[in-house]
Amino acid sequence: MAEEFSHLPVMAREVVELFRPVPGGMFVDCTVGGGGHAAVLLDARPEVHVLGLDRDADAVEAARSRLARFGDRARVVHGGFERLGEIVERHGEGEQVMGILMDLGVSSAQLDRPERGFSFRFDAPLDMRMDAKQSLTATEVVNGYEESQLALVISQYGEERFARRIARAIVAARPVRSTRQLAEIVRDAIPAATRRRGPHPARRTFQAIRMEVNRELPNLADGLDESVHVIGPRGRVLVLAYHSLEDRMVKETFGRWAGADADRQVPAKMPVPPPKLRPLARLLTRKPLRPSADEVEANPRAESARLRAVERLSNLPDIVA
Ligand SMILES: C[S@@+](CC[C@H](N)C(=O)[O-])C[C@H]1O[C@@H](n2cnc3c(N)ncnc32)[C@H](O)[C@@H]1O
Q1: Which residues surround ligand 1 with Cβ inside 6 Å?
Q2: What is the pTM of this model?
Q3: HEC string of 146-173?
């Protein structure tokens, strides 16, 4: 299993460089996947150790095997970053977290394994769960959601302009049982002229359903909230996003942490002027970093990556005296 898990870490050089000024200590790789970023970081920084987590049990197994050579400098546990605080409390041995990395989305290993049902390139049951223990699968979303709900998911998460036509075609074809059947329904629902351009016509719909099944955007919101509490002073939080909605959420969240915006913790209708708040963090990337042309050529899956980073300023009370 572990040998089959292949995923090239995206923008690994930039990740190491952004972490370089951070004092050593415990780093949390929130999406350890095959352990690619964790291994690069552990090789580059002998004074760092990593707690890796992943919702996918296959990834946990793969990362454990890949990181075994680092001995007790690497630990990998099964869990979601939306519960980061709880996981660090349980497995962090009371140590301050100095680095947090989130490399969002799906891994190549998940996409390339037909039976996981993530890809329109293979025929498999409609699953798409990152965590096999959760009950919601793509089968329920595709066959159980109302047409309007399905159209909303496909339009928002897939940024698909033909979402309503696709949702209508899916509902008409129910029950939809396999990835191939779904890919064909989507392809046939899209105007022929559009089909001939760009990537596979079902790509956006598959992405949308996957994001819905795995609650990727709500989990990201929770994970970011958790990370600002977990990270220590001078520690850094880095996020690699591959979807514009995710990147927007990261940008806005980091912007909020970095600005002394009063409404961050104060109810909007407070009768007295809110106190001035100290920023929680300093932005390290005003614009997201993008992969080099060489990296994209070597690893086309890096193409849409956007890397943003912040540094936590202090754990002091946030109100300026
Ligand atoms: C792009 S891959 C990470 C690859 C990894 N950085 C590497 O170099 O091998 C994303 C991983 O994040 C995991 N994942 C997605 N959402 C998660 C969440 N909320 N909590 C923990 N892991 C998550 C997925 O299961 C997947 O293995």
Answers
A1: 7, 9, 30-31, 33-37, 53-56, 59, 80-82, 103, 105, 107, 130, 219
A2: 0.92
A3: CHHHHHHHHHHHHCCCCHHHHHHHHHHH
